[in-house]
Amino acid sequence: MINVGLIGYGYWGPNLARNFAEADGVRLTAVADGRADRRDAAGRRFPGVAACDDALSMIDRSDVDAVAIATPLETHFPLAKAALERGKHVLIEKPFAASKADAETLASLADARGLRLMVDHTFVYNGAVRRIRSLIDAGELGELLYLDSVRVNLGLLQHDSNVIWDLAVHDLSIMDFLIDARPVAVSADGTTAGGVGHENVAYVTVHFDGGFLAHFHVNWLAPVKIRQMLLGGRQRMLVYDDTQPSEKVRVYDKGVDVDRVDARDGEMRRQILISYRTGDMHAPTFDRREALALVVREFADAIAQHRAPLTDAAAGLRVVSLLEAADASLRAQGRRVAL
């Protein structure tokens, strides 16, 4: 039985607490939150679970084997560092850390102590996203050409981070899971529309060698909620729409075929070489279990089996590196920043 202590019972914490309480082989032992009303809410929902007003005192408890951190971004590093130094396994809400340097420090500390350090990249455990990965692995899409993502809605504006760190982290983690090639540079542009202190509308481009390109539009000021990703392959193209209740993944047998026949006349060459293909669309089935339940299961299994979790510190570090590079590009008026 793995005894877990949860730090933070605000927006995301209750979801983690419920899944820890329901998982086999896991016991939710304690919840820490500095706000009395949130500790009271946790006590009503989980009778018998210790309520702590101080995170460090909870980390020090002998009946806590692992710690889950669901707190603001700037607290991730000190809390995770304290837990690792006390010999606790750690699960951190995304983003993993506020800087690449902090992420590297945590990864090194966990490795030195032989502890499991995992980031909650929830969408990597989403059944639709995992189905997309299986389609890529099976060669259904062919050579991948581009990824285009839109994640917009009205709010929730954050006070401690911009829209890239808040929203783009989701889609960057999906890209990191789906695309085996590693990016080489990032460029970003954004605006603090409406006088808000942080960028609330942004566009991020991730550059790869070989021509593949990934683009992300994130926005806190949109009148509608859109969570859509396009993935173009040489054989087929795919649309992932997380707002759809059923057909979240649609695969289109559409594309552009290029005939390598040569011709002297330039206009004739274009007509001969390019033809457009339109075929059927199908919506593949996928695992509909709650993604967060699979996150908790992976964390517990990685601890029990003494192995790295799927979304380990290395995955967290890769995504934080992209976020940090995007921030640097913002400050440099969109200049491409090498990774």
Descriptive tags:
2 domains, Rossmann fold, 339 residues
State the gist of this model.
The protein has 339 residues and is an alpha/beta fold.
- Overall 3D geometry? globular
- Calculate Rg over CA atoms: 22 Å
What number is the mean pLDDT? 94
Count the E strands.
Answer: 15
Helix segment tally: 10
Per CATH, the superfamily of the largest domain is: Dihydrodipicolinate Reductase, domain 2
What is the architecture of the largest domain at the second tier of CATH?
A: 2-Layer Sandwich
Q: Report the top-level CATH class of the largest domain.
A: Alpha Beta
Instruction: Give the strand order, joined by hyphens, for the main sheet.
Output: 14-13-12-11-7-10-9-8-15
Oligomer: single chain
Largest sheet: 9 strands, mixed
Low-pLDDT stretches: none
What percentage of amino acids are in beta strands?
25-35%
In total, the number of domains comes to 2
Distance between the termini: 41 Å
H/E series: EHEHEHEHEHEHEHEEEEEEHEHHE
Assign the CATH topology of the largest domain. Dihydrodipicolinate Reductase, domain 2
Q: Which structural class is indicated by helix and strand composition? A: alpha/beta
Measured as a percent range, the helix fraction is: 25-40%
Structural features, described:
Helix 1 links the parallel strand 1 and strand 2. This protein is globular. Helix 4 packs parallel to helix 5, helix 5 packs antiparallel against helix 10 and helix 7 crosses helix 10. The chain contains ten helices and 15 strands. Strands 14-13-12-11-7-10-9-8-15 form a nine-stranded mixed β-sheet. A six-stranded parallel β-sheet has the order 3-2-1-4-5-6, with helices on both faces. The chain has 339 residues and is α/β, with parallel strands linked by helices. The chain folds into two domains: 139 residues, NAD(P)-binding Rossmann-like Domain (Rossmann fold, 3-Layer(aba) Sandwich), CATH 3.40.50; 183 residues, 2-Layer Sandwich (Dihydrodipicolinate Reductase, domain 2), CATH 3.30.360.
